[in-house]
């Protein structure tokens, strides 16, 4: 059996969703919700609500940190600055930043996400996932700091 075949065999029985659930239970946060149909987990960790998509059909998971900042759509200067800072962050950070527009309440909301492999072969999966969550906290702090710096520098009123 070649190397690719060995790896495929090693992970053939991997239960990613169950592995994620077990890992989250060890981390000290709280599972706030679970959608059995989609596999989406709502998990509170250090005051943030993260969403985690996992499936037993895939060795990758997606972690989301949704709705952590918002800007009124009417504030064109702030929106332009937000996009500038977001583009810079996406060049350097390990989490991807993006925004959604809610026309109904007139807000642009910022989110971040990260796709990662999650397999039982990794040692200390709880530490691995805690590090991933730390990446989310870091990107949020850097984004907000840079947004504030540019806003002040350009004299934009918030």
Polypeptide structure, described:
The chain is an alpha+beta fold. It has a single domain (3-153), classed as Yope Regulator, Chain: A (2-Layer Sandwich). It has helices at residues 3-10, 16-26, 76-92, 125-153, and strands spanning 30-35, 40-45, 48-53, 60-72, 96-102, 107-117. Strand 3 and strand 4 form a beta hairpin. The chain starts with a helix and ends in a 5-residue tail after the last helix. The mean pLDDT is 89.
Features:
alpha+beta; 158 residues; Yope Regulator, Chain: A
What's this entry about, in short?
41% of the residues lie in helices and 31% in strands. It has 158 residues and is α+β, with helices and mostly antiparallel strands.
Distance between the termini: 62 Å
> How many E-type strands?
6
Mean pLDDT: 89
CATH T-level topology: Yope Regulator, Chain: A
Radius of gyration: 19 Å
Helix content class: 40-55%
Number of structural domains? 1
H/I helix tally: 4
- Counting helices, strands and paired strands, the structural category is alpha+beta
Name of the CATH class = Alpha Beta
Question: What is the N-to-C succession of helices and strands?
Answer: HHEEEEHEEH
Structural shape: elongated
| Relative strand content | 25-35%
pLDDT below 50 for ≥5 consecutive residues: which ranges?
A: none
The side-by-side strand order for the widest beta sheet comes to 1-2-3-4-6-5
| CATH architectural type | 2-Layer Sandwich
**Largest sheet descriptor:** 6 strands, antiparallel
């Amino acid at each position: 059996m070649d190397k690719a075949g060995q790896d495929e065999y090693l992970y053939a029985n991997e239960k990613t969703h169950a592995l994620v659930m077990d890992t989250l239970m060890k981390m000290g946060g709280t599972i706030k919700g679970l959608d059995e149909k989609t596999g989406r987990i709502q998990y509170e960790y250090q005051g943030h609500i993260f969403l985690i998509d996992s499936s037993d059909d895939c060795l990758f998971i997606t972690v989301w940190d949704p709705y952590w900042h918002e800007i009124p759509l009417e504030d064109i200067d702030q929106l332009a600055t937000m996009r500038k800072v977001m583009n810079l962050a996406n060049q350097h950070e390990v989490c991807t930043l993006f925004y959604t527009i809610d026309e109904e309440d007139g807000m642009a909301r910022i989110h971040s996400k990260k796709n990662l492999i999650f397999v039982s072969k990794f040692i200390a999966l709880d530490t691995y996932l805690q590090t991933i969550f730390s990446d989310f906290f870091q990107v949020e702090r850097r984004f907000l700091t840079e947004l504030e710096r540019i806003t002040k520098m350009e004299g934009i009123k918030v």
